[in-house]
Write a structure and sequence with these properties.
Blueprint: H1 2-13, H2 18-39, H3 43-51, H4 53-79, E1 88-92, H5 99-111, E2 115-120, E3 125-129, H6 136-139, H7 142-151
Antiparallel strand pairs: 1-3, 2-3
Helix pairs in contact: 1-2, 4-7
């Protein structure tokens, strides 16, 4: 991270001189010390986050697929208003340990067309669905498995 801060400093200055390098080095060290003291920063934490990047990218891909499927279902509902729809409220327990994972799941559900997270309590989610089949990917599918891997 410190190397990235230093490179950003050099890039924003547009030229490389001894003075700019020394000021950038001092600024980078000062920023690192302040992050450690004020925010309890540790490089191990960055490495742990970087190790989970593949799971996060897989999660984004799976979320994109779920959004695409939900879009198609909502379009189908709009184009065929005579057909019966199975809307309703779904209660489910995602069994996620961290608040961050629950936050990501609740927002992913709300981001998906035809669904909205009505309530996200610690162990129970309440979701309204335009079509109950939209929730299949969220209640027991790939998204929850990937979120659990991100938590581990």
């Amino acid at each position: 991270m410190y190397l990235l801060l230093f490179i950003l400093w050099i890039f924003l200055n547009g030229k490389v001189t001894a003075e700019i390098c020394l000021i950038g080095l001092a600024g980078t060290v000062l920023t690192g010390v302040l992050m450690y003291v004020l925010f309890r920063y540790s490089p191990r934490r960055d490495l742990r986050i970087l190790s989970k990047t593949p799971f996060f990218l897989l999660y984004l891909g799976a979320l994109f697929v779920e959004i695409l499927k939900a879009n198609l279902k909502v379009i189908h509902i709009i184009l065929h208003p005579e057909k019966e729809i199975s809307q309703g409220i779904v209660l489910f327990e995602p069994n996620l340990r961290t608040g961050a994972a629950r936050f990501i799941l609740a927002n992913s559900i709300t981001l998906t067309p035809g669904t909205i997270t009505v309530r996200a309590e610690k162990h129970r989610f309440t979701v309204h669905c335009l079509d109950l089949s939209i929730m299949d990917g969220f209640t027991d599918g790939t998204l929850l498995k990937l979120l659990r891997k991100l938590e581990a």
